Amino acid sequence: MDKQPNELHDIRSFYDSIYYRSAGPYAKPSRHLLRLAARLAIGPDQRVLDVGCGTGQWLKAASEFGAVPYGIDLSEKAITVCRSMMPAGTFHAQAAEALPFDDCQFDLVSCLGALEHFVDARSALREMMRVAKHDARFLFLVPNADFLTRRIGLYAGTHQVDAKEDVLSLNEWAQLFEGCGIEVRDRWRDLHVLSWAWISSRGPLSIPLRAAQAAALAVWPLTWQYQVYHLCALRKR
After folding, report:
1. 31-36, long-range: CB < 8 A, 24+ apart
2. Strand 227-234 vs strand 106-112: parallel, antiparallel, or unpaired?
3. Which of 31, 73, 139, 172 has its CA at a distance of 20 to 30 angstroms from the CA of residue 65?
4. Is the pLDDT of residue 138 over 60?
């Protein structure tokens, strides 16, 4: 018996009733996401699909550079926020393992902080490849099992571990991508923590510790990072 429908139902329920319970419209995307869009040279009329898009803040940043936003997320509540923030975008509340798009549609396919939560990551990756143009870029943000704080036992995962969270080492992520036919072209640190919003997000008593964490991540080697961006392309045959 296939357990996937029941598992998807439970994960969707977690996101709708717990993770995105208080989600609503936001003023604007973060500076970090705007810098990311600039780094990727997002341009007018590029079709950007974000898989596991949440409330769409990355797509909102890309759209400010002229991109046409498309988003998929399991959570109906998150997709409702996306539609309210980007009425001209295209959004679907469904699983990443079966994308509702024709082949060869997108210039950039992203999946930021979501792949580790999918029921079947390989199937989702193959779907992303299917809907991407042959010269498309892929951007993944994935957690690192060798994150130093995790290795010494001071970190046990995100809040989403209550639903599903599979964390791999950087080498294991690269093997997963390459096994599906996706070639890693570049990798870099996720430094969204270098912001007052992140440092102060848990109140004044946590500020010194979170400031120290942010400073450490800025200098730690890639193999010790919490999560890492992977810029990829389809492997040439």
Report:
1. 31/195, 32/191, 32/192, 32/195, 33/57, 33/58, 33/60, 33/61, 34/61, 34/64, 36/61
2. unpaired
3. 73
4. yes
Q: What is the mean pLDDT of residues 6-19?
A: 89
Non-local CB neighbours of 232 within 8 Å, separated by 6+ positions: 137, 138, 139, 140, 177, 182, 183, 184, 185
- Give 156's pLDDT tier (boundaries 50, 70, 90): low
Q: Which residues pair with 69 in a beta bridge?
A: 48
For residue 233, how many C-alpha atoms fall within 13 Å in the half-sphere facing its CB?
8
Structural domains of the chain, with CATH: 4-192+225-234 (3.40.50.150)
Taking a C-beta distance cutoff of 8 angstroms, is the pair 41, 139 a contact? no
Q: Which residue has the higher pLDDT, 72 or 216?
A: 72
CB 199 within 8 A of CB 214: yes
Q: How far apart are CA 129 and CA 109, in angstroms?
A: 8
Structure token pair of residue 186: 């570049």
